[in-house]
Write a structure and sequence with these properties.
Oligomer: heterodimer
Distance between the termini of chain A: 85 Å
Number of helices of chain B: 4
Number of helices of chain A: 7
Shape of chain A: elongated
Strand content of chain A: under 5%
Number of strands of chain A: 0
Distance between the termini of chain B: 68 Å
Largest interface: A-B, 59 and 55 residues
Helix content of chain A: over 70%
Helix content of chain B: over 70%
Order of helices and strands of chain A: HHHHHHH
CATH superfamily of chain A: Cytochrome c oxidase, subunit III, four-helix bundle
CATH architecture of chain A: Up-down Bundle
Chain lengths: ~220, ~110
């Protein structure tokens, strides 16, 4: 018998070895970009998100400058509730970055606490928003009522979907996704950082939405 | 502990550096809280609309920059990310300028 020859796959009776393809550049830095693929990927996604929200902000400006009169947000919306929600979202950004910093220090237990707190704070934000929305509906204020409410519901509704999306990813990283910490802690840490980048972006959008809709 | 060490090592940060980061995060957190309350307080002054918009967007820009620079680590990020963001910023500004241009029938000034 000669040495084993390289087999061409596809023949009958061939035993196909389990294909193991590692995703490239999850941990190691790619030389041409100077980044991991995940990092550049999430930033490109955030760039597209800027344009998504940008289009709606542009619509807001167009509708407002074209309107003969425009209400001050505070006369229709609940400023104290929104202020509370702003503080909630800012706090959740801090717990998110602290979750990542905990992993960088190798403290998995602390990470779980901070990420759990981030998810809970996201939930608090949504609950407050639910009360705000239902109060508006109770007062028969709908997106179809006027232009102000139309753009208010569109912008805050889209933002709420983002909060929900961020919570889903964080819940995965707290639950089944956390197994990666045992096998590849550096990769897991990068995932948490990228999820954090999205979460901070959602916070950043709210920082502009709050004064635009509620205070001006 | 070896795996924990790996996480910190591969990312190229030592624990003391992370401690410094954490102190910055807390400072930024306090600043964001204060600026939020300041924004709300200013809204009760009932400034003229252009003035109110200018002040509110100015404060929001400071807050947004703090989040982007420190929580999103843009203060020490790679060149390629900056390049992506510069292109994004140009297009974002163009997007916001569009309604202004069209509102004045294609002229910047009436």
């Amino acid at each position: 018998m000669g040495p084993p020859r390289a087999r061409v796959s596809g023949g009958a009776g061939d035993e196909v070895p389990p294909v193991k393809m590692d995703i490239p550049y999850t941990v190691e830095i790619r030389r041409d970009t100077g980044l991991t693929n995940g990092k550049i990927g999430i930033w490109l996604f955030l760039a597209s998100e800027v344009m998504l929200f940008g289009a709606l902000f542009a619509s807001y400006i167009l509708i407002r400058t074209g309107a003969p009169s425009w209400p001050r947000g505070a006369t229709i919306l609940n400023v104290p509730l929104a202020t509370f929600n702003t503080l909630v979202l800012i706090t959740s950004s801090v717990t998110m970055v602290m979750a990542w910093a905990s992993l960088m220090r190798g403290r998995f237990g602390t990470f779980r606490l901070y990420l759990g707190a981030t998810i809970v704070l996201g939930f608090v934000f949504l609950v407050v928003k639910y009360f705000e929305y239902s109060h508006k509906f109770h007062d028969e204020l709908f997106p179809s009522t006027n232009n102000f409410l139309a753009i208010y519901f569109t912008l805050t509704g889209l933002h709420m979907l983002h909060v929900l999306g961020g919570m889903a990813v964080n819940a995965y990283l707290l639950g089944p996704g956390a197994r990666l910490w045992k096998t590849n802690p550096a990769w897991f840490t990068n995932r948490v950082e990228n999820s954090g980048l999205f979460w901070h972006f959602v916070d950043l959008v709210w920082i502009f939405l709050f004064p635009t809709l509620y205070l001006l | 502990m070896t795996s924990d060490h790996a996480a910190a090592h591969i990312a190229g940060h030592d624990p003391a550096e992370i401690d410094r980061h954490v102190r910055v995060y807390i400072t930024v957190f306090v600043a964001l809280m204060a600026l939020t309350l300041i924004t709300v307080a200013i809204s009760y002054l009932h400034l003229s609309t252009p003035m109110a918009i200018a002040v509110a967007l100015f404060v929001a820009t400071i807050k947004g920059s703090l989040v982007a620079c420190y929580f999103m680590h843009l203060i020490s990020e790679k060149k390629l990310i900056y390049a992506v963001l510069v292109i994004t910023a140009i297009k974002f500004i163009a997007l916001l300028a569009l309604p202004v241009i069209t509102h004045n029938n294609g002229y910047w000034i009436h």
